[in-house]
Amino acid sequence: MSAREEVLARLRAARDVGGSTVPDVPRDYHRTGVHAPGSAAAVERLTETLTDYRATVHRVGDLDGVPAAIAAVLAGSSSVVAPPGLPGEWLGEVTATVRRDDPPLSVADLDRLDAVVTGAAVAIADTGTFVLDALAPDQGRRAISLVPDHHVCVIRAADVVSSVPEALARLAPDGPLTFVSGPSATSDIELDRVEGVHGPRRLDVVLIVPPRA
Question: Could you tell me which residue ranges the LUD domain spans (predicted)?
């Protein structure tokens, strides 16, 4: 018997318990977080965890404040890419050259651009994570959020949940999902933190928090 056959045989044997099928796995873990979705507490927690991950958070009170916030963040950039469905008004005050990813830009083209601006499907307060759903027009292809060196993400307070199970319940399982927790970083080499290895080295989040949130 080869090693592969032995492993498969053990897996098949592990499925049988006294000749019956595998018993039900208890799934009594918490499916909701401490803070209500979109609440002020959830937003505060997200701000805290994003900052811990070295992201910079910029709060605005409504959609009208988004263009100025994005323009300020991109003040030093000369070029930016945006998904085809990103609201045009969000980029209305940006002085950099804006390129829409339509038709899709090549990796070489993306690598020459300074930044990317996207929306987000949902944000997880407890983990400081936001999720990009490639099916959504304001988030676009995964490549545009990984190649440019600077990522600017717009998140609405209503899309902030407390826990991972709450986030997964809002996401479609049949499309590619990108989970982002701070700028890309690794400490594999002599435990020295190096940013920008697997994605953007700089992350700015524009958080839309109405006064009532």
Answer: 111-208
Contact 127, 164 (CB under 8 A): yes
Going by their DSSP bridges, the two strands 122-124 and 129-133 should be labelled as: antiparallel
User: Which is nearest to 151 in space by CA: 175, 120, 176?
Assistant: 120
pLDDT, tens digit (0-9, with 9 covering 90-100), for 6-35: 998 888 877 665 555 666 778 777 788 889
In degrees to the nearest 10, what's the CA dihedral of 95, 97, 101, 107? -130
Domain ranges of the chain: 49-208
- pTM for the model: 0.81
Task: Decide if 171 contacts 130 (C-beta within 8 A).
Answer: no
Q: In angstroms, how far is CA 93 from the centroid of its own chain?
A: 24
How far apart are the C-alpha atoms of 170 and 161, rounded to whole Å? 10
Single out the residue of 96, 75, 86, 95 nearest to residue 120, CA to CA.
86
Please give the Cα distance from 143 to 131 (Å, whole number): 14
Locus of tokens 């700028």: 183
Superfamily of domain 49-208: NagB/RpiA/CoA transferase-like (3.40.50.10420)
* 87 token code pair: 């609201």
pLDDT tens digit sequence for 159-202: 999 999 999 999 988 888 999 998 765 556 665 555 545 568 89
Phi-psi domain of 4 (left: phi exceeds 0; alpha: psi -120 through 50; beta: other): alpha
